[in-house]
Known about the structure:
Layout: H1 2-20, H2 26-59, H3 64-91, H4 93-98, H5 104-136, H6 141-165, H7 171-202
Helix pairs in contact: 1-2, 1-6, 2-3, 2-5, 3-5, 5-7, 6-7
Amino acid sequence: MALCLGxxxxxxxxxxxxxxxxxxxxxxxxxxxxxxxxxxYMISIGVGNATGIVAARYYAALDIQxxxxxxxxxxxxxxxxxxxxxxxxxxxxxxxxxxxxxxxPTRKSIENNIHISIPFLVFEFVYVVTRMTLRxxxxxxxxxxxxxxxxxxLGIVFSVSLLSLYDYTVQSxxxxxxxxxxxxxxxxxWRLKSISNKTTTTD
Length: 203
């Protein structure tokens, strides 16, 4: 878990360096946007930890059906909490940006970043809950390596590629985060399904 959180922190640090080189206001917009979405990210951490703790009780008995049930309930609970917040991000992004700065170009960049980050927050939530569920099933290293590979390696590659080939603005960095979080969500979900089927077959 420490490796995953450390890897994510390193990723965002590297992205802050990249965004600083884009324009004078990009670093401010990046940091403000990241600060706001990190607040919502705490919901993912809370629901993910709770789901993993409850699911671990059933793994000792190899009750895979109950684990999947808890996982599904965790996803539904988290999305229920996230949905009104994400609607708020969409409809009130101007109000959010003005809390950070009165500079018009920086505000516009923050608003675009938050708008792009809406699917990222959904994908991120799902992969965090899935990763914590996998840990409750004593699957530690594969989720950790997948997180480092997708976020730290592909995340930088996608960011640089989009900046070079698509749009040389900070929005390309947040678009790269959307792509990476989607890929990581799919891979971790595949991992959870694979382990669940294997354990069920073994029983």
